[in-house]
Amino acid sequence: MALLWFVTALWAASFSLIGEFLAGRVDGYIAVFIRMILALAVLAPFLRLSQFSWRQQLQLAAIGALQIGVMYLFLYHAFLYLSVAEVLLFTIFTPLYVTLVDELLSGRRHLPGRWWFAAALAVVGAAVIRYDHLSEQFWFGLLLIQAANLCFAAGQVLYKRLPLGNERQQLQIFALFFAGASVVSALAMVAFADFNKLPSSNLQWFILVWLGVGASGLGYLLWNLASKRVNTAQLAIMNNMLIPAGLLVNFSFWGQQVDWWRLAIGSAILLLSIAIASRR
After folding, report:
1. Which has the closest alpha carbon to 75: 123, 29, 21?
2. In the chain, beta strands by DSSP E
3. Which of 39, 248, 249, 274 is 20 to 30 A from 51 in CA distance terms?
4. Closest to 145 (Cα-Cα) out of 194, 186, 93, 216
5. Is the pTM of the predicted complex or chain greater than 0.85?
6. What span, in angstroms and rounded, lies between the C-alpha atoms of 254 and 266?
7. Nearest Cα to Cα of residue 126 among 74, 91, 153
8. How far is residue 82 from each of residues 8, 89, 225, measured CA to CA in Å?
């Protein structure tokens, strides 16, 4: 769990940087492609593929393409139909998708009902924090966000179930995760990007380098490594811990207003869900 908490803090700070310095200035598809290429470049020197089968290599590349590449494709399309607040609200269902995908892949073995309850409780806790008024025409955007949530959830569960050996061995193949993501993000950039919104300042490039090397390269590596250490419910719930963490970062560094009562109640529910999921 410690690794998941660390990555949550890492991503919370990164989302704040995106919102303050990149959103609306640098095209999202271009930014994602740059991040994936940088992450691939950082992890490529560790590649040692001789001990892995072609099937394992292709599976990992496909997981990266799904978990990041296709997920971002749906996510950025959703911004055409939803406000930022609505996008954040509709991402809260990811814990249920993580649990559902693992249930479907478990075959005849059913997940404990306690895990389902904990995942549902995590959705409630996040909703307490994030719920706001919705626009009248949000249904198509809602569907796009759920598709993004499902891709991200499925990628996590598939990686958790993919046998890749110990953590050192996983490091030696993980660059393929970003190879798959880079292919999809490159296609999305060519098809949908606004090339009038390229990075134009040293600060924007510095942030993109950090996002590629730190938030993406290190972040996704550690998150997926940690997914193999925890149970499905713990992994599912930690997907929503980014919401209170992000709000606290935004308040601490940018002075954005926070509804402290809702944050406190929602965070308490999230912590309760983690406690339920962690019971042996």
Report:
1. 29
2. none
3. 39
4. 93
5. yes
6. 22
7. 91
8. 24, 10, 33
